[in-house]
Every structure is written in structure tokens, then in C-alpha cells.
């Protein structure tokens, strides 16, 4: 009886291994025929077996199936496929270390990392009023994967560029909707500030942040009319001064980073005039006239 039991267990084990291999082979055939959804179903069933769950080859193959499904899907539908492809290639890397499937895994992950970044940039360019922050999630996916692949390189350059693009897109949205859309201009300010958190020496972020604060003050002044009451007028004047004071250090920083640029000198001239710093205003005006006349 004891021997019969052992024989039965061995037979069951043999059948399990056979079924395990058959699922992978069938998934491969479906993949070759372009039946990627069928291949997905088969490979997902195959990893329920321990042997496959611990196989870098199977996880590498699973990654390629999901990668192909992502490539053939539109963006929204393909998002989950791409995430699964990334998870599969990463697991294959962890199981194979620097072995046979490692180079192919890394190559595939670098491709998928680039698609996350491209989607982030594309989504920024297509941002709409009240459109949400989908680009941020795409970039976060890119950032996590890039740091996993090449932690020594970091993502500072890409993140700085992305944050400034995001801020500029929200500026454009605000310009279209003006006073109806306070949320967009606040987001623009926030993203420029995040950019400066990465690099306080960035000229573009300093200059554009100064312009936003100045324009916000100018916008308030432009809203004053004969109907404006005295209390409201005093409140507007106070808020205007706050905006102009916020703008000044950013414009000064921009001027120090790229001295004698016409745009930053004009900015300093107008901001100081708005703050009633007439002596300083005249200094910048004189300097600007000298540059423009030479």
C-alpha cells in the first residue's frame, strides 16, 4: 500500500510537470500565430505552477506577451498590459540575476520606460481645462522604472524638464480661461516651485514664476473700476503688492543667472515701478536703454 501511494504521487507529479510544460508550449504557439490574448491566458495559467513561477524564462516570455498586447492596444486599454509587462520582466531579472535572460529583460524594460516618459510628455501637451493630472502618474511610472534600471543616473534632468512643461501647460490653460480658472494658475506656480526645488539655478523656472506673480497683480489692478468700493480697493492694493513682492526675488535670480537679458531687465523695471521703487526702476530703465541702443 505504501509503495502504491508513492507511485501515485510520482505519477501525479509527472502529470503536473507535463501540463506545466504544455501550457507554456501552447502559449508559445499562440504567440507565434499572433493570438496574444490566448497566449496571455495560457501563460497566466502556467505560472500557477511552482516550476514556472520560479522560471526566469517563463517570466521573460510573459513579459513579451504583455508587451505585445500593450503595443497593439490604444493607450488607456494598454496601460495595465504595460504594467504587467514591466512586472514580468523585473521578476525575470530577479530570478535570473545577470544570467541568460537578464540582457533581454533590461532591453525590454528600457523600451517600456521610454514609453512611460513619452506618454507623460504627450499627456502634458494634450492637457485640457479640468483634465486631471494623468501626466504625473505616467511620469511617476517612468521615474520608478528608470531608478530601478539605472539608480546611479537619477532622473533629475527629465523631472526638471517635465515639471516646467507641466507648469507651462497649466499657464496656457489659465490664459484661455482667465479668472474662471484659478486652479490652473495655482498648479503652474506649484510645478515651477517643484522645479526650483530640484534646481534653484534654473533660469526659466525663476523667470516664469516671476512673470506669473507679476501678472496676477496686474490682473487685479485691471479689474478695478468705478464700481470698486473703497474697502475692496484697499484689499486689492494689498494683494497686488504681495504679488509684486513675490515676483521680485525670482526676477532678480533670473537676472543674476543670465545678466543683461532684455526680458529680465524689463521684468525688474516693471516690478520695481509697481512697487513704487522709482530709483531702482530708473536704474534698470537706464541699463535697458543702454543695451537696446548699442
Characterization of the model:
- Helix content is 82%, strand content 0%.
- The protein has helices at residues 2-32, 36-46, 50-53, 56-71, 75-96, 102-125, 134-149, 156-177, 182-198, 203-222, 230-257, 262-274, 278-293.
- The chain has 2 domains: 16-154, Alpha Horseshoe (Serine Threonine Protein Phosphatase 5, Tetratricopeptide repeat), CATH 1.25.40.10; 200-294, Alpha Horseshoe (Serine Threonine Protein Phosphatase 5, Tetratricopeptide repeat).
- With 294 residues, the protein is mainly α.
Task: Lay out the secondary structure.
Elements: H1 2-32, H2 36-46, H3 50-53, H4 56-71, H5 75-96, H6 102-125, H7 134-149, H8 156-177, H9 182-198, H10 203-222, H11 230-257, H12 262-274, H13 278-293
Helix pairs in contact: 1-2, 2-4, 4-5, 4-6, 5-6, 6-7, 6-8, 8-9, 9-10, 10-11, 11-12, 12-13
Number of domains: 2
Structure summary, number of beta strands: 0
What is the number of helical segments per DSSP (H or I, 4+ residues)?
Answer: 13
Tell me the CATH architecture of the largest domain: Alpha Horseshoe
Q: CATH topology of the largest domain, anyone? A: Serine Threonine Protein Phosphatase 5, Tetratricopeptide repeat
Question: Quick one: overall form?
Answer: elongated
Whole-number average pLDDT? 88
In what range is the share of β-strand residues? under 5%
CATH superfamily of the largest domain: Tetratricopeptide repeat domain
Q: Mind telling me the C-alpha Rg?
A: 30 Å
Helical percentage = over 70%
- In whole angstroms, the N-to-C terminal distance is 106 Å
Which consecutive residue ranges, at least 5 long each, have pLDDT under 50?
Answer: 1-14
User: Which series of helices and strands comes N to C?
Assistant: HHHHHHHHHHHHH
> What is the CATH class designation of the largest domain?
Mainly Alpha
Main pleated sheet? none
The assigned structural class equals mainly alpha
